[in-house]
Amino acid sequence: MNIIQNIIIGFVALIHIYIVYLEMALWTTKKGIKTFGLKNKEFAEETKVMAANQGLYNGFLAAGLIWSIIINKTDVAIFFLTCVFIAGIYGAYSTKKKSILYIQTIPATIGILFILLN
Question: Residue 68 and residue 63: Cα distance in Å, rounded?
Answer without folding.
Answer: 9
